[in-house]
C-alpha cells in the first residue's frame, strides 16, 4: 500500500507538480495549470459530490461551484493540508449543503450521523453458522454460492450498472466513504481526516456499504449463473 | 484458541482487509476461512466487489462546464 504518514490526499490520479508550484501558477494566472487540475481532479470530485446530491447534473453544479470557491480562496491557501485535501473539503462542504437544501430528493437523515453508523456490523445477507440466525426473519441462514467470474464485456457492463444503481441506494455517509476508499483508493486515515469521522465510524460505514453492494452483486450474479438467488 | 463463528467473521471482514486485526484475532479469522466454505466464498465476493468498484468508469466535467470554469479563471486572474 501507499506510504502516507500525513492524512493528505496526494497519490491517486495523474501526476501534477508539487502543491507550491501549482498554487503559485494559479495565483499567477496560469490557465494551463488550472485546466490540468480540472482534468485531474474533477472526475473524483464529481463522484464525491454525487454521494450527497440526487443526480449527475446537480453534482456537476456542485463541482463547478467548488472550483469557483477554490479560485476565491487560493490566495489565502496556507498549505496546512495538501492542496487536494483542501479542494476536496470544499467540494464536500458544498455538496452537503446542496444535499440538505435539496431535502426533497435526499432525506436529511441520510446526511447526519445515525445510530446504525456505530452498531456492530453484521451483514444480514452474509453467511451464518448453522445454529445462528434461524429464528431471525431478517437473516435466514444461508451459505454464499460462488459467483461466475464476471468476464466478458456485456456482463462487466451490467455489473457496473448494478453497482451504480446500488450506490444510489446507499445513505450519503456510506456512499462517500466507499467512494473515497474503494473507487478512489484513499486510505482509512485520509478518509477519517477528510470527513472528520472516527476510525471506528469510518469502518462501520465502509463495512455496511460493501456488504450492501456485495448483496446486490450476489442477487444479480447468482441469478446469472442459473441458480435461484436465496433472497 | 476459541473458534470463530460466521457472525463474528462477517463483522471482522473489513478490519481484516484493512490489515487491522490483532495477531490472535487474525489467526482465528484465517482459521475460520479454512473450515468454513461459505465464509471463504463470502470473503472472495467482498474482494471482487471492492475490485469492481475500482474499475467503475469515471467521468469528467462536460465541455460546457469546463469552458465556463476556464472563463471564470480568466476573469478571476484579470482581477
UniProtKB/TrEMBL annotation, chain A:
Location of region: Disordered: 111-142
Gene3D superfamilies: 1.10.1740.10, Winged helix-like DNA-binding domain superfamily/Winged helix DNA-binding domain (1.10.10.10)
Segments forming domain RNA polymerase sigma factor 70 region 4 type: 163-213
SUPFAM superfamilies referenced in this protein's UniProt entry, alphabetically: Sigma2 domain of RNA polymerase sigma factors, Sigma3 and sigma4 domains of RNA polymerase sigma factors
GO terms classed as biological process: DNA-templated transcription initiation
Location of the RNA polymerase sigma-70 region domain: 39-97
Entry annotated with the keyword Transcription: yes
UniProt-recorded Gene Ontology molecular function terms: DNA binding; sigma factor activity
Protein family according to the UniProt entry: Belongs to the sigma-70 factor family. ECF subfamily.
PANTHER family attached to this UniProt entry: ECF RNA POLYMERASE SIGMA-E FACTOR, RNA POLYMERASE ECF-TYPE SIGMA FACTO
The protein, known as: RNA polymerase sigma24 factor
Species of provenance: Planotetraspora mira
Lineage: Bacteria, Bacillati, Actinomycetota, Actinomycetes, Streptosporangiales
TrEMBL record, chain B:
Superkingdom to which the source organism belongs: Bacteria
Keywords of the record: Transcription, Transcription regulation
Gene3D superfamilies registered for this protein in UniProt: Anti-sigma factor, zinc-finger domain
Annotated ranges, domain Putative zinc-finger: 6-39
InterPro entries for the chain: Anti_sigma_zinc_sf (IPR041916), Znf_put (IPR027383)
Name of the protein in its database record: Anti-sigma factor
Species this protein is from: Planotetraspora mira
Amino acid at each position: 500500500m501507499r506510504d502516507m504518514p500525513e492524512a493528505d490526499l496526494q497519490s491517486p490520479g495523474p501526476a501534477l507538480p508539487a502543491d507550491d508550484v501549482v498554487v503559485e501558477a494559479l495565483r499567477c494566472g496560469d490557465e494551463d495549470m488550472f485546466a490540468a487540475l480540472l482534468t485531474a481532479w474533477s472526475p473524483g470530485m464529481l463522484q464525491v459530490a454525487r454521494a450527497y446530491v440526487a443526480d449527475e447534473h446537480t453534482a456537476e453544479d456542485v463541482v463547478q461551484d467548488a472550483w469557483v470557491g477554490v479560485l476565491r480562496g487560493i490566495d489565502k491557501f496556507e498549505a496546512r493540508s495538501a492542496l487536494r485535501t483542501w479542494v476536496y473539503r470544499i467540494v464536500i462542504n458544498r455538496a452537503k449543503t446542496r444535499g440538505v437544501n435539496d431535502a426533497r430528493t435526499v432525506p436529511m437523515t441520510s446526511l447526519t450521523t445515525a445510530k446504525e453508523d456505530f452498531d456492530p456490523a453484521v451483514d444480514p445477507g452474509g453467511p451464518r453458522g448453522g445454529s445462528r440466525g434461524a429464528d431471525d426473519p431478517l437473516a435466514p441462514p444461508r451459505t454464499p454460492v460462488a459467483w461466475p467470474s464476471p468476464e466478458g464485456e456485456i456482463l462487466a457492463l451490467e455489473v457496473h450498472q448494478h453497482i451504480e444503481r446500488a450506490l444510489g441506494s446507499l445513505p450519503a455517509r456510506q456512499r462517500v466513504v466507499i467512494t473515497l476508499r474503494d473507487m478512489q483508493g484513499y486510505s482509512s486515515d485520509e478518509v477519517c481526516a477528510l470527513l472528520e469521522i472516527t476510525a471506528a465510524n469510518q469502518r462501520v460505514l465502509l463495512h455496511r456499504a460493501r456488504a450492501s453492494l456485495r448483496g446486490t452483486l450476489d442477487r444479480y450474479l447468482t441469478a446469472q449463473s442459473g441458480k435461484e438467488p436465496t433472497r | 484458541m476459541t473458534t470463530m463463528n460466521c457472525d463474528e467473521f462477517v463483522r471482522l471482514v473489513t478490519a481484516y482487509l484493512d490489515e487491522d486485526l490483532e495477531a490472535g484475532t487474525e489467526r482465528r479469522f484465517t482459521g475460520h476461512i479454512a473450515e468454513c466454505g461459505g465464509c471463504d466464498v463470502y470473503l472472495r465476493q467482498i474482494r471482487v466487489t471492492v475490485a469492481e468498484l475500482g474499475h467503475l468508469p469515471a467521468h469528467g466535467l462536460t465541455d460546457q462546464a469546463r469552458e465556463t470554469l476556464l472563463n471564470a479563471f480568466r476573469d478571476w486572474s484579470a482581477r
